[in-house]
Amino acid sequence: MTESVMQGHGYYNAHSELQARSAQASDPILDTALRELAIPATGPITLADFGSSQGRNSLRPIGRALSALIARGGADRDFAVIHTDQPHNDFASLFTLLQESPDSYLRDQPHVFAYAIGRTFYGPLLPAGSLTFGWSSIALHWLSRRPAIAPNHLWFDRGPPEVRDAFAAVAAEDWQSFLTHRAKELAPGGQLVLVSGANDEGGQCGIEGVFDFANEVLQRMVADGAVPKAAYQAMTVPVRPRSRADFEAPFRSGLLPDLKLEEITIAPTPNPALDNWRADGDADALAQVMTGFFVGAFGPTLFGDDQPSENAFALRLHQAIAAQPEQAARELVTGTVRVSRL
Ligand SMILES: C[S@@+](CC[C@H](N)C(=O)[O-])C[C@H]1O[C@@H](n2cnc3c(N)ncnc32)[C@H](O)[C@@H]1O
Questions:
Q1: Mutate which of 4, 16, 170 for ligand 1 pocket (most atoms within 8 A of beta carbon)
Q2: What is the pLDDT of residue 3?
Q3: CATH code where residue 156 lies
Q4: Three-state DSSP class for 231?
Q5: Percent over 70 (pLDDT), the chain
Q6: What is the pLDDT of residues 272-305, one digit of tens each?
Q7: C-alpha–C-alpha distance, residues 279 and 286, integer Å
Q8: Domain count of the fold of the chain
Q9: In which band, very low, low, confident or very high, does the pLDDT at 1 lie, cut at 50, 70 and 90?
Q10: Ligand 1 pocket test, candidate residues 22, 56, 142, 194, most atoms within 8 A of CB
Q11: Is 37 within the bounds of a domain?
Q12: Span 196-211, mean pLDDT?
């Protein structure tokens, strides 16, 4: 495995409620984009979903987009929905879901056609001027590469300044690359709504406490001989949430003359498992959800195909969170950026 994909065989689909709730908080911004974007006069209307994973969390926003555009006069138009992810993504689960889910946007929609592209979204993906609406949720904080290793930690921000600077530099390059390619692919009047991990004014993204637990668990596994020290020392995950200034930077510097930054919202987003724990104090239930979330999103990056190590890690992470739930009890901070093509 060479890329940071999600846990396969549909596992991510079954453990990504938290990501779904984070993205759902952006519905008002999604609706604004769907109201304002220009529908092309002729030909198919193309929607893209950048970083789809196995598709569970794409069904709702893409279905919402299709309904809005059909209501705006697209009833007899053909739609192409293009899901993109890394080559090793579990596309089989995506296509099975599209075919079988009662929530599939393909149901009773003879004019809607679904496709997938297995290629990085930091490069070109679509023909110039072909894209009407682009959506991305909880994907753009994944970097194109791991810029540095934080000594003795999985989370870059727990590393020294030079590690944090290296992550910031690649995050800036990647954001610029993503937008540059989308600027070519969008048709005039097209729009993007991009939801991703973000830092609040205090530089926190909400996931730090869970990463601290994960790091302590791995250090104990190294001490027990369950994980080789060299493997642990290379485990810093290539994720870097962005601040408002990071999101704004390429627009301010004039590097994207064809794109207009319409709005940015950065806010903590709902976590139903946290709400339940605050109401009923069931730390075990919270630990189960947060462990599933963590393993679904980061398991393949940390353990590759080493399922026994991942299972042992998951068990210990669950125990650690259940023992001190208050340390993992932070909402995730999410940034939503709406961009239009001039
Ligand atoms: C946390 S999942 C989000 C999935 C889904 N959009 C959601 O909202 O739940 C992040 C996805 O982004 C994908 N991803 C990360 N880096 C990528 C890249 N450079 N190009 C394409 N996809 C990427 C990962 O493979 C993964 O499937």
A1: 4
A2: 67
A3: 3.40.50.150
A4: helix
A5: 99
A6: 999 999 999 999 999 999 999 999 999 999 999 9
A7: 11
A8: 1
A9: very low
A10: 142
A11: yes
A12: 97
Query: Looking at the domain assignment, is residue 86 inside a domain?
Result: yes
- The model's pTM: 0.97
Q: Tokens standing for 168?
A: 């910031």
Confirm whether 4 is domain-assigned: no
In a domain, 41, yes or no: yes
* Cα(159)–Cα(42) distance, integer angstroms: 52
Contacts for 314 with CB less than 8 Å, ≥ 6 apart: 291, 295, 299
For residue range 242-278, list pLDDT tens digits in order. Answer: 999 999 999 999 989 999 999 999 999 999 999 999 9
- The tokens describing 172, both together, are 């800036």
Query: For residue 155, what are the domain limits?
Result: 11-341
Task: Report residues whose beta carbon is within 6 angstroms of any ligand 1 atom.
Answer: 4-6, 16, 19, 23, 51-53, 57-58, 84-86, 89, 120-122, 137-139, 142, 144, 297
User: Beta-carbon neighbour count of residue 300 at 10 Å?
Assistant: 23
User: Residue of the nearest CA to atom 18 in ligand 1?
Assistant: 120
